[in-house]
Amino acid sequence: MALLTWDNTGERLYETGVDHGVLYIPDQTGAYETGFAWNGLVTVTESPTGADTSPQYADNIKYLNLIAAEEFGCTIEAFTYPPEFGECDGTAMPDAGVAIGQQPRKSFGLSYRTIVGNDVESNEYGYKLHLVYGCLAAPSERAYSTVNDSPEAITFSWEVTTTPVQVTGYKPTALVTVDATLVSSTGLKALEDELYGAAGAPRLPLPDEVISLLGT
Questions:
Q1: CA-CA to 161 of 20 to 30 Å: which in 73, 86, 148, 201?
Q2: Confidence band (pLDDT; 50, 70, 90) for 213?
Q3: What would the pLDDT profile of 47-69 be if each residue is shown by its tens digit?
Q4: pLDDT band at 216 (very low <50, low <70, confident <90, very high)
Q5: Distance CA 35, CA 203 (A)
Q6: For the purposes of burial, counting CB atoms within 10 Å of the CB of 98, is it exposed (0-12), middle (13-18) or buried (19 or more)?
Q7: What percent of the chain has pLDDT over 70?
Q8: Model confidence over 141-181: pLDDT tens digits?
């Protein structure tokens, strides 16, 4: 076995940025067959919860640890959002330009891209695709303030919970992350063609299909 070394050239990796956001609206079957570009993404904060341990005692010792189910949530912050997100944010539009709040909230899917950089190629080294399923956005606060000598654009923010979807051979999941530096270029292109619409209407493949596409 080779001796361990640290900070070798090309191995000083980091992650940064967020872009290429896409909103996907599910159809009546739950398939994410319609995608819309999400401009103005500022941050997507991934917030897994659960997986707490519950110690069990017997024979005067700590006998085992039971682990609670893990859930995935996130916070989306953006300068703007696609008009189609309105129905996911509890807004109905009975007529053009007229929005009615406090309506039923529709679930959605989401994809976004983050940059993977290193010490040689900087931000050009690669990226990761993040695919999120079964999203439901909670009501959010919006603070409108006067224009002054230090103007700032308002940002919108949503707390998002998820419902996992099935993955053959694994437990259900709400998040699939694809590292473009590790998968085949052919499989990556096939997946991105689906996500961004080069192969037809933009759509979010379910995890089983993602794995199949990356194997091409």
A1: 201
A2: very high
A3: 988 888 899 999 989 999 998 88
A4: low
A5: 5
A6: exposed
A7: 100
A8: 888 888 888 888 889 999 999 999 999 999 999 999 999 99
Q: At what angle do helices 185-196 and 207-214 cross, to 10 degrees?
A: 140
Token reading at 44:
């997507």
Beta-carbon neighbour count of residue 152 at 10 Å? 8
Rg (CA), the chain: 21
User: What one-character-per-residue DSSP string does the chain give?
Assistant: -PPP--S-TT---EEEEEEEEEEEE--TTS-B-EEEEE--EEEEEEEEEE--EEEEEETTEEEEEEEPPEEEEEEEEES---GGGGGGGT-EEEETTEEE-SPPPPPEEEEEEEEEEETTTEEEEEEEEEEEEEEEEPP---------SS-----EEEEEEE--EEETTEEEESEEEEETTTS-HHHHHHHHHHHHTTTSS--B--HHHHHHHHT-
- 125, amino acid identity: Y
Cβ(136)–Cβ(107) under 8 Å?
yes
Residue range 15-39: mean pLDDT, rounded: 95
- How many whole angstroms from its chain centre is CA 106? 17
Kindly state the tokens that stand for 52.
Answer: 């707490």
